[in-house]
Amino acid sequence: xxxxxxxxxxxxxxxxxxxxxxxxxxxxxxxxxxxxxxxxxxxxxxxxxxxxxxxxxxxxxxxxxxxxxxxxxxxxxxxxxxxx
Length: 84
Prior knowledge:
- By secondary structure, the chain is an alpha+beta fold.
- The protein contains four helices and three strands, in the order αβααββα.
- It has a three-stranded antiparallel beta sheet.
- The longest helix has 27 residues, at about 55-84.
- Residues about 1-10 have low confidence and may be disordered.
């Protein structure tokens, strides 16, 4: 029982997102979502019991930040190549 209390207190404030919210936030479809999870390029969901799953909001935010950084880095390289 103490382990459960420690577990819950260590995740206090962590928000979980269900699939419709994740899909709306990332702008991808269901098939692409699961293909990216399988490829290891998108965070895996957390089991809530039974068939219910959710994603940690912090992991989704991190994934979005990585996509933005990668996009801006590639855009910057593309613009430098055009100038040369």
